[in-house]
Amino acid sequence: MSGGGLRRGLRDVPRTVWLLAAGQFFNMIVAFTFVYFFVYLTDERGLSVAQAGVISGIGGAGTVAGNFTGGWFGDRYGHRRVLLVGSLISGVGVLALPVLSVPLLYVAPVLSQYAAGCVRAANAALVATVVPEGARRQAFAVMRFAANAGFTVGPPLGALLIAQAGYGTLFVVDGVGTLIFAAYAARVLPARGAARATGPAEASDAPGVLACLRQRPTVVLLLAAILVTDLVYRQQYSTLPADLDHHGLDTGVYGWLLAINGGLILLLELPVTVALRGRAPLRIIGGGVLLVGAGYGVLAVGPGFGTAVAMMLLLTAGEVLYKTPATAYVADHAPAHVQGRFQSLYSGVSVSGVVLSAPLGGALYTVAPGALWPVCAGLAGLAGVLLLVAGRAGRAGRAGVSRTEEVRSVRETGTRTG
Predict the structure, then answer these.
(1) How many angstroms separate the CA atoms of 339 and 219, rounded?
(2) Per-residue b/e over 24-44, b at no fewer than 16 CB within 10 Å?
(3) Alpha helices for 31-107 (secondary structure H)
């Protein structure tokens, strides 16, 4: 896509989204504590690997729980308010980590990461409410670009801070940076008015979220497919490096694979999303999920340098295709009074692999190492096929409705003229 075409495609993204994306870029640059938290617990605090694993695991569960519930708070109290309060709690929690006793380390990270998960859900809900249907794919792509760009810079900067000034400085920069983001968001996000940033109160006779989901079976199917896909997708952060090491590929190779993933996402996701914004979403999402499955299917042939690179290229292509349209699809099909809860459901299932992928993948790899990649490929392949079938059925249904309306219009015209 040409630069001019990309600019035209992004023209409908509101100013509020650009401002929020700028804040998210900064926030992701300083959000490096969780990357080094496990090493901090073992090296700096002298905890065992088992203790560090439990603390980190509980914190990850807090992140997932925050994603699942942040939208509920937003629908009730306002998404802007949830973003601000969550950022404050998260920032203070990170600042406190170096001075906490070991027993409190089992509690404070859970609260801090729960708040951070609520912020993620609030971010998505804010975009969904301020952007009209038809421009949400582009808007969510802008937000993902900002987050990925910030995270590309953050971990190397965190490593530099640790080397030069120690872990204490790492927590101070992360915590203060999160508080700065909260102040910035309070300044740039509209408190009321056309932006609708404070989700409307639910009317007493309005259907609840479960009733709304029952009326939208394709949303339920999409959420289930993303849950399975994220479980498979995040094997790249747990069992993949272990399997590569088992086959003689060191951490340097794994690092280059992650660099390929991050670089291609930054380069391709925004223009690809804009170029495909008019295409049927479920078919794009289904195709992306199939590519994720194909990536792990390549590994099933036998892990090696060539198959590992091919796997990462396919996985990245799948991520570029499915993640942004899936977020927008949920937003486009959410009633206004439960927009936050719909986004929370998507945010929660889209990070569920943070908690589930390592233990489930690790257990299967321990029992049957050769079965892991075929199982991953099969699960993602099944999810992708179901989404493609749903997309084709939905398209046929819309075409049938259009033909019915056309026949009715002709009949009505004939009656009037006759």
Answers:
(1) 13
(2) bbbbbbbbbbbebbbebbeee
(3) 33-39, 49-77, 79-96
Q: Are 202 and 78 in contact (CB under 8 A)?
A: no
Provide the 3-class DSSP secondary structure of residue 239: helix
User: How far are the Cα atoms of 25, 33, 88, 152, 355 from residue 28, in angstroms, in the given order?
Assistant: 5, 11, 15, 9, 21
Q: Distance between CA 352 and CA 113 in Å, rounded?
A: 14
CA distance 318 to 381: 12
What integer best gives the mean pLDDT of the chain? 87
Answer whether 259's CB lies under 8 Å from 358's CB.
no
Rg, Å, the chain Cα set: 22
What predicted TM-score, i.e. pTM, was given to this entire model? 0.85
Q: Which two tokens stand for residue 172?
A: 């101070």
* Predicted confidence band of residue 407 (pLDDT cuts 50, 70, 90): very low
Dihedral sign computed on CA atoms, order 303, 357, 241, 174: positive
Classify residue 346 by burial, with Cβ atoms within 10 Å: 0-12, 13-18, 19+.
Answer: buried
Rounded Cα–Cα distance for residues 233 and 82 (Å): 29
The Cα 101–Cα 162 span in angstroms is 21
Residue reference for tokens 């509920």 = 72
- pLDDT (tens digit, 9 = 90+) per residue, 255-298? 889 889 999 999 999 999 999 988 999 999 999 999 999 999 99
Contact present, 345 and 123 (Cβ < 8 Å): no
Cβ 256 vs Cβ 241: under 8 Å = no
Q: What length is written for the chain?
A: 418
Q: For residues 317 and 210, what is the distance between their CA atoms, to the nearest angstrom?
A: 33
